[in-house]
């Protein structure tokens, strides 16, 4: 339950009183920062997150007088902020680890071969009849379902399947010629 003095401060903050906000800030900021730093193990990031919390307190100040416990409110914000930070950091760490693993495992020669292969596939696509090329692009590049392609182009789904089979055969034929030439 909020004490009278704190409730008075919260009402003053809600009306835009900077001195009342300063008073609440000075009382809670060190505690919030310590609490967050203990969870995330970074003093600097804890400072940033704590400042963000008090910025949010100020920007939503009109709701403060309705609180049953400012202490519970501010610590819930701190806990959520710390957990959100840790979740985003975890996801970022996984992404960085996966990206660095991929980049380490691909040699410059493999990258060049992949680019050549993409170029050859693009040549095969460019040589397809217009409708087949359009169907292939919609299906394989734009990831549109065959039923939707049929509906969009006014064709049967069987025609779409046949054209995709022919498109893939065109690509295989060009790649087979290139591989025979280079082997």
From TrEMBL:
Question: What sequence ranges are listed for the domain RNA polymerase sigma-70 region?
Answer: 25-87
Keywords attached to this entry: Sigma factor, Transcription, Transcription regulation
The answer to whether keyword Transcription regulation applies is yes
Its signal peptide is none
Domain RNA polymerase sigma factor 70 region 4 type stretches: 124-170
Which Pfam family, giving just one, matches this sequence?
Answer: Sigma70_r4_2
Q: Which family does it belong to?
A: Belongs to the sigma-70 factor family. ECF subfamily.
Q: What name does this protein carry? A: RNA polymerase sigma-70 factor
Q: Give the source species.
A: Dysgonomonas termitidis
């Amino acid at each position: 339950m909020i004490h009278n003095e704190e409730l008075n401060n919260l009402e003053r903050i809600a009306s835009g009183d900077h001195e009342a906000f300063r008073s609440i800030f000075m009382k809670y900021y060190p505690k919030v920062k310590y609490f967050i730093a203990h969870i995330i193990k970074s003093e600097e990031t804890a400072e940033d997150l704590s400042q963000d919390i008090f910025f949010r307190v100020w920007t939503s100040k009109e709701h403060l007088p309705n609180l049953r416990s400012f202490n519970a409110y501010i610590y819930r914000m701190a806990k959520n902020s710390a957990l959100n930070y840790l979740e985003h950091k975890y996801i970022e760490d996984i992404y960085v680890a996966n990206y660095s693993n991929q980049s380490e495992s691909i040699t410059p020669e493999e990258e060049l071969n992949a680019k050549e292969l993409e170029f050859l596939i693009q040549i095969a696509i460019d040589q397809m009849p217009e409708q087949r090329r359009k169907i292939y692009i919609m299906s394989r590049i734009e990831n549109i379902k065959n039923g939707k392609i049929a509906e969009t182009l006014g064709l049967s789904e069987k025609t779409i399947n046949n054209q995709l089979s022919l498109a893939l055969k065109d690509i295989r034929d060009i790649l087979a010629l290139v591989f025979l030439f280079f082997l």
